[in-house]
Amino acid sequence: xxxxxxxxxxxxxxxxxxxxxxxxxxxxxxxxxxxxxxxxxxxxxxxxxxxxxxxxxxxxxxxxxxxxxxxxxxxxxxxxxxxxxxxxxxxxxxxxxxxxxxxxxxxxxxxxxxxxxxxxxxxxxxxxxxxxxxxxxxxxxxxxxxxxxxxxxxxxxxxxxxxxxxxx
Amino acid sequence: xxxxxxxxxxxxxxxxxxxxxxxxxxxxxxxxxxxxxxxxxxxxxxxxxxxxxxxxxxxxxxxxxxxxxxxxxxxxxxxxxxxxxxxxxxxxxxxxxxxxxxxxxxxxxxxxxxxxxxxxxxxxxxxxxxxxxxxxxxxxxxxxxxxxxxxxxxxxxxxxxxxxxxxxxxxxxxxxxxxxxxxxxxxxxxxxxxxxxxxxxxxxxxxxxxxxxxxxxxxxxxxxxxxxxxxxxxxxxxxxxxxxxxxxxxxxxxxxxxxx
Lengths: 168, 260
Fold this sequence. Notes:
The structure holds 2 protein chains of 2 kinds. Chain A is mainly alpha-helical. Chain A is built from 7 helices and 2 strands; from the N terminus they run αββαααααα. Chain A has a two-stranded antiparallel ribbon. By secondary structure, chain B is of the alpha+beta class. Chain B has 2 domains: 2-53; 60-258, 2-Layer Sandwich (Alpha-Beta Plaits). In chain B, strands 8-1-10-9 form a 4-stranded mixed sheet. In chain B, strands 2-3 form a two-stranded antiparallel sheet. A two-stranded antiparallel sheet of chain B has the order 4-5. Chain B is globular, with a radius of gyration of 22 Å. Chain A binds chain B through residues 64-65, 68-73, 80, 97, 117, 119-125, 127-128, 131, 134-135, 139, 142-143, 145, 152-153, 155-156, 158, 162, 166, and chain B through 72-73, 75-76, 79-80, 82-84, 86, 88, 90, 138, 140-142, 146, 148-150, 173-179, 182-187, 195-196, 198-200, 211-213.
């Protein structure tokens, strides 16, 4: 078991620059090596890649307590920030949900048998554009939710928009 | 030995006498002023103690003017909160999320109706915090009462303890939650006083419900620092007659109502 883990780990680090997921044949059977893709829209992560690989969970854990308990919201280690780069789907693309191995987080987590529940509460993709559009609506003439031509987007409409643009 | 026993027996009687005499004297000198004065003096002492050593810590609160709120306005508060935080009560079920809700008060004699928005009252001595077995229900240093969903186990004890029924439980699996309000199945939630806006804007913050109903100078829902005697909310609390709901419970709510 220890050899399997060791070879898997070595294999993972050796193969990271490769493009797609591949099946490595070893004496222990087929091992699928996760190949997380870099986001195209960002030049660098908040820390060097090797640090992020080892310590991203520590950053997130520290950040979550600082935010919830002390209200510190301008740190660079935010889960929303992760998703804004690593799962920012264009409206035309298919949404990748967390349990899907293609999800940036899920690939390695599945491989390493890590079970997290971040995405029980947090969105597993960037909703920046949709949310901004929602909040930018004029707040004048409230309440208009039930009236025709409503300026206040009802939640039903919001979810419909998410559905159509996100391709759920 | 005998004299000691005598003293012990006499002391309570003497204390009762002295208390009675003091109360009688105060009532004679200034009837009706006693409660206000002692409360006021205590508040001043606390504020001064804060100023001496460190910058004063705010205590955020709301003043809700029910005279300025129509039923449509209260609906607007609820909608604005839903839009801000991404919760809904579409199903109309008793287990729906309720960060803020509409409450009707009817005077039984006159039949006069008042409608008011009801949400977490952000108590200074919150019962929900007392009963939480994991410390997930907590009060921030600035007086905002929140649920830390990272440690909430969903026991719902806080829902039972809250005298305002301000909290609700999430029964369904959710996805695509808004960035400002992460929420998920198996945790309890309630009004956060729009804490993300307060962290961003401080004393100039305007909660979503207030933003929905405040027009021009008339602020039907006034947000501010209760610890700052010069803040608009403190000034209005001093000059107007306001009510804190179920003040008899002694939980010291941060939300006050005007016109009840």
